[in-house]
Amino acid sequence: MIRFLVHAVREAFISIRRNAPMSLISVSTVALCLFMLGSMVLLSLNIDAVTGTLEGQVELTLYLETKVDEGGAREIMDLLSRLDEVREVRYVSKEEALERLRRQFGDQQGLLDGIAHMNPLPASIEVNLVWPEGAGQVAAYASGLPGVEEVAYAKDTVEQLLEITRLIRLGGYMLVMVLVAATCLLVANTIRLTVFARRRQIAIMRLVGATDAFIKGPFAVEGIILGLAGAGLAAVMVKQVYLRVVSALSTSIPFLPLLPPGAELEAVVQLLLGTGTAIGAVGSVIAVRRFLGAQGG
Amino acid sequence: MRRLYNFPWVEGNSSDYVEMPGHCEVSLVIRMVGIWKTFPRDIHALRDVNLHIKKGEFVFLVGPSGAGKSTLIKLIYREEMPSRGRVLVDGKDITRMSPREVPFLRRRMGMVFQDFKLLPEKTVYENIAFALQVTGMPWGEIRHRVRYVLGLVGLTDKIKSWPDQLSGGEQQRVALARAMVRDPSIILADEPTGNLDPGTAQEIVGLLEEINRLGATVVMATHAQALVNTMKKRVIELGGGQVIRDQERGSYR
User: Fold this and answer.
1) For residue A116, what is the DSSP state?
2) Is B95 on the interface with A (CB under 8 A)?
3) In angstroms, rounded to a whole number, what is the distance separating the alpha carbons of residues B220 and B172?
4) How close is the nearest chain B Cα to the Cα of A196, in Å?
5) What DSSP state is assigned to residue A110?
6) Which residue in B69, B89, B93 sits closest to B243, CA to CA?
7) What's the rounded Cα separation, in Å, for the pair B223 and B63?
8) Between 20 and 30 A from A279 (CA), which of B52, B108, B133, B153?
């Protein structure tokens, strides 16, 4: 068994070296396909994050008159809580509102230093609804309450936004699916070509009494090595490109909630490595099996 | 003449790796009973062929192209299955063998072909060594054996060459070395001299005869009249898929 493994690994490396051009083509095909796949997965993860953020945002915001203090706000909140349509109310003080803005500005919060001492932001009450459809009634009720300056009520906007994000998300998933299929096809084709070029070799191996496993072993190892190499290349490219894109976008559009290059990126990298290995191994074994089965015996 | 099969491991039973058939008690090495081989569109390659080939025989298989010589040889190493009938090798019906056993059947045989069937991406050494690697033999013994058979066919100095750097005769000698490196009890040769000039052909057949003299059964399909006529071996003539002549010490016609 160990001798068999040693043989398979040795033969795989010899074969990669002696078929260098074909090996290079295989590696770059895998790398390119997986790079596109990885990019699409990251893109759709980000779309998910953005749409998730948008959907989770409050549906009603009651901006309070400046004369209303926190006690007055509590009274309004009690009234609102009694409504069936309301799930949750939350008080946002002037200081908290400023702090939030600061966070959104991220690195550029220095811009806010000028207004910090006067803080023009009003205190507000955020209202989450059980049914978005009830937003109209609640808004009408709330705007009649004393101390409420204005009700920010963007039902149409929110619904349109939801519709758009749904479409974007769907498009992203479909794109990923199409890309996965295309990757598999392209890689399978490349592997079939390399194995086809060696069908004579396979025939002779069978003639001298090699078992099927003995023939498949080196091809499987070769597939794993080439798949892994391609995936590694793709992973490096995806990582570099994503780091650059994130740093570029976060300076130009600071409040866009992009995923930071952390756990998600690592997961994508691992996904690529796993996919590359699997595609290489499974693809080459399937391709070899076609030639093994093609002959009598 | 060099002595073939004078392997240190043949006399004793030192080798655990090459499965030697128990052919001592079976005198019929190859037996065909009522063989029919029909290809699609009702092409009858073989019709009711019955054959007995005894251990240690040297048999020429002659006949025009398309007479069924290659098909008959392919039946023996189970590259083809008969449409009807049985093929027995060392007393075992190989038509009932499972596909998993086929590699082990082939390891007991050595095969030589008109087109040599060497692997172009492997060196001479690797081509011969491969026939032993499939049996899981340790590389030390492989190296020992390969050097030995290369010496027997007189190609020790070509050990690191690639097949396409060799002449046809040299390539066929490599193929012959590969065929005998496992001490097979049967050598199957399908027109081994078809691509060679008469002198080289004579050399190859000389090597086959030497292997045969040392105990291996040799079945050789050929068109080379002169060779058959000078050798005075058993001649089986096929015509239209049937055995039309089976003659001890025969000639081509």
Assistant:
1) H
2) no
3) 14
4) 15
5) G
6) B69
7) 7
8) B133
Query: B187, B184, B194, B177: which is closest to B209 by C-alpha?
Result: B187
Q: Is the ipTM of this complex over 0.85?
A: no
Q: How far is A190 from chain B (nearest CA, A)?
A: 20
User: For the segment B26-49, what is each residue's pLDDT rounded down to a tens digit?
Assistant: 466 899 999 999 998 888 899 999
Closest CA to A105 of A255, A248, A251, A246: A255
Note the pLDDT tens digit of each residue in B219-234.
Answer: 999 998 889 999 999 9
CB < 8 Å to B99, chain A: 297
CB contact under 8 A, B80 and A296: yes
Residue of A nearest to B109 (CA): A208
Strand partners of residue A89: A127
In Å, how far is B79's CA from the nearest CA of chain A?
6
Interface test with A, best of B95, B114, B133, B174 (most A CBs within 10 A): B133
pLDDT digits (tens, 9 = 90+) for B91-142: 899 999 998 899 999 999 999 999 999 988 889 999 999 999 888 888 899 9
Q: Which residues of B touch A209 (CB under 8 A)?
A: 103-107, 131, 134-135
* Residues recorded for chain B: 253
* A208/B134 touch (CB, cutoff 8 Å), yes or no: yes
Question: What torsion, rounded to 10 degrees, do the Cα atoms A192, A197, A200, A201 define?
Answer: -90
Band (pLDDT 50/70/90 cuts) for residue B156 is very high
Say yes or no for a CB contact (<8 Å) between B77 and A207: yes
Q: Give the Å distances, CA to CA, from B189 to A128, A198, B218.
A: 87, 24, 8
- pTM of this prediction? 0.67
Which residues in A167-183 are b (16+ Cβ under 10 Å) and which e? ebbeebeeebeebbeeb
Judged against a pLDDT cut of 80, whether residue A236 lies above it is answered with yes
